[in-house]
Each structure stands twice: as C-alpha cells, then as structure tokens.
Design a protein that fits this description.
alpha+beta
Length: about 200
C-alpha cells in the first residue's frame, strides 16, 4: 500500500538523516568537551513551517510532544467549520504521528490525500568547555512531511500527483469502529431481583 510505503520510507529517511546531533557528538571521542549552544534552522525550514508552502489553507503543525487527540479534534473542528481542505505538517520524529493522524481522519470522513516529502538543513553550533579548542559546527538534514487532506477534488489532474491517495472505501472507513465494537466486553445482565427488592428473601 502507498500508505505503508510512505510510513516505511519516512522512517528510513528519518533514521538516516534525523540523528540527534548532540547524542552523536557526546559519543564521539573528545566531543564530551563541547556543549551545544545553538541549533539553527535554515531558510528552507522556515519556509516549511511558515505559510508559503500551503498558501491560504489552514495548517495543523504536529510536534513530537503534542497529543494526537488534540490534533484530531482541531482538524475535525476545521472541517466542521466549513474548511474544505487542511494541511498537516511534521518534521523528524513527528512524521509517524502525522501519518497516524491522517489515517484516523480518513476513517472519520471521505478525504482525498496528497503527500509531499522533503528535507531541511539544520546547523548545530558547539562551544568548547575547555580553553584552547575551536567552535565546532555540525550540519544535518531533517525530513519533513506535508499531508494535504481535502473533501473535494479541485482539479481532476490532482489525482496524477505521485503522492495522491483517494478516499477510503466506506466499508474500510467503518472497519476500525466495527473491530473495536466486537472487541469490547459484552454487558452481563443483572441477576433477577427478589420480590420486595434487593435484600428481600
């Protein structure tokens, strides 16, 4: 499935490019003598997090610390308020969470989906904690995912986008709900009450 490939690709991409630079340097000989003093995002990162990449569409910016249910509620409120399309944005380790949120939203309503993967450069600056050492600059790349969800197709050619996914079939949308209902424990009927109410007899 396209969704599975997307999740796998983003995980592999993240594993190779989103390494925590401070951890790498702490595990590198002699780098225990340095401390991270600045983490600078490139202009590409600012553009991704800004409004330039999605135009006038409302954005849901997903972080690693945020709770999925809050993002889902916010996205649902946007659609219920009349928005026809929204954009989910995530970087680094938050990408898997964005994919999960998109899947949950697609099971609540028929949504068209477009995925765009990219990367941005991050620059980390380390200062020595001992005299006589130079400042060290580290450059790394962080993966970015933008997911556009829409109730309608603005253009028939939009389905030609390599990251396009059509809405789920109705039976697939409700499959998760049916499975959860089947797994729920059945309610046991109460024992018959003796004449005169509880404690009688």
């Amino acid at each position: 499935m396209i969704q599975s490939r997307l999740a796998n690709d983003s995980s592999r991409f993240e594993a190779t490019t989103n390494t925590n630079s401070s951890e790498v340097y702490r595990n590198t000989p002699h780098m225990e003598k340095y401390r991270l003093v600045q983490e600078h995002k490139s202009e590409e990162s600012d553009d991704f997090l800004g409004t330039q990449t999605s135009g006038s569409l409302p954005e849901v910016r997903i972080t690693q610390q945020g709770k999925p249910r809050n993002y889902i509620s916010y996205a649902m409120n946007l659609f219920e308020s009349g928005q026809g399309s929204i954009v989910l944005k995530a970087m680094g380790r938050a990408i898997n969470k964005a994919v999960t949120i998109a899947e949950i939203l697609k099971r609540k309503m028929p949504l068209h989906q477009w995925n765009n993967l990219s990367s941005v450069e991050m620059v980390d600056v380390y200062e020595p904690v001992e005299e006589g050492l130079d400042v060290v600059t580290s450059r790394r790349y962080v993966s970015c995912l933008q997911i556009t969800l829409s109730l309608t197709l603005a253009n028939a050619n939009d389905t030609m986008h390599p990251g396009y996914q059509p809405p789920l079939a109705e039976e697939e949308m409700h499959q998760q709900l049916a499975a959860a209902t089947a797994a729920a424990p059945a309610a046991h009927p109460l024992p018959p009450t003796a004449p005169g109410g509880i404690g009688a007899g």
